[in-house]
Amino acid sequence: MRRKADYQADPNTIKGAVRCDPEKIDDWVKQLPVGKRAVVYCVKGGSVSQSVTDRLRGEKFDAVFLEGGLKHWIESGQPVEAAHDSIHEADINLLRQAGVSEEDIAHSVKVAEKALEIASRIRRNLDMELVGRGALFHDLGKAKTHEIEHGKLGAEMGAAIGLPPAITAVMEKHVRTGVSCREHGGNDRTPRG
Ligand SMILES: [Fe+2]
Questions:
Q1: 63 and 93 together in one domain
Q2: What whole-number distance in Å separates Cα of residue 127 and Cα of residue 73?
């Protein structure tokens, strides 16, 4: 249970944990698996995890909170892992160097954040690097054109700068998913893929 800023400052997590924003409990509580115990932790095991635990119990979940939080967990020598699900400045620089506009970069960062957020709520082993980087680079081709060809062009540009085939495949295919112009960040007059 950490807010985005706290999590970005220290992306260490307890292995297998899923990060949830305590302020968005109404959204993620519906996705929690029923019939399993939920162990809730926050930075210090204080009011954040305790109030979330109370709320979950109110919704009939078997919830407990971790005393001392992540801080105590680390201090007592328990293992943590650095989460992969973050957006790297180096990748943003690649977009910039390729000539993607700041507006399109801002869109790509938003898409990547959303993709990572959705993926982190799915309790399966997902390739978070592919989710994050695929989303971040999906519009690389917009450095050349905003027409539908930006998908295919982007994939070629991505291959040229050494991005893995799994990522260039996202770039090439995302324009054929049936997402409307509006949803994709365009407007009524400028069709975008
Ligand atoms: Fe696109």
A1: no
A2: 26
Expressed in angstroms and rounded, the spacing between residue 11 Cα and the centre of ligand 1 is 29
Segment 1-13 mean pLDDT: 78
pLDDT above 90 for 76: yes
Q: How far does residue 160's CA lie from ligand 1's centre (Å)?
A: 19
Number of domains in the chain: 2
Q: 184: CA distance to ligand 1 center in Å?
A: 7
Threshold 0.70, pTM exceeds = no
How much is the pLDDT for 91? 87
Q: Is residue 188 part of a domain?
A: no
**Residue 27 identity:** D
Name the domain boundary from 82, 104, 128: 82
Ligand 1: distance of its center to the CA of 134 in Å? 12
- CA 128 – CA 83 distance, rounded (Å): 9
CA of 7 to the centre of ligand 1 (A): 29
* C-alpha distance across the termini of the chain, in Å: 36
- Give the Å distance between the CA of 175 and the centre of ligand 1: 6
Cα of 103 from ligand 1 centre, angstroms: 13
Tens of pLDDT along 19-53?
Answer: 788 888 887 887 777 888 999 999 998 899 999 99
Rounded Cα gap, residues 56 and 94, in angstroms: 42
